[in-house]
Amino acid sequence: LYRAGQTERDASIVNLRFTSSGYFPAMGHRLVAGRFLEDADRDRKNAVLSEGLAKLYWPNGDAVGGQVHVSGALFTVVGVIADSSVTSLKDAPTRLAFVPYAFRNPGRMFFVVRANRPASELTPLVREAIWSHAP
Description:
Elements: E1 2-3, E2 15-19, H1 23-27, E3 31-34, E4 46-50, H2 51-57, E5 67-70, E6 73-81, E7 96-100, H3 119-133
Parallel strand pairs: 2-7, 4-6
Antiparallel strand pairs: 1-5, 3-6, 4-7, 5-6
């Protein structure tokens, strides 16, 4: 991933996540600037960056409205979230970039569910939701 106006030589290693609009509240991410991805972003090249990554590329300014190259495509930054330890509690927060899942490479997909009901009640509901979306 690298900022528009830079070259691929300036790219940083980031943890790229392909997400839906409900991911951020489900994971408890805190918004620092802009907005989270929304359902309307499904077919748009919009991205959300972690605060550390945004500061790396925009040390003296606001990342929202800026653009970054992700996997050969240009994405507009619509939001910045607070840094968090999502890969390890021992290591420093990872630089993260989030884009709509419609732009993901084929491969594994993970689901995150946040609820105040027992897992035994949720399992059939989650299974039904997944199969109704992609039988």
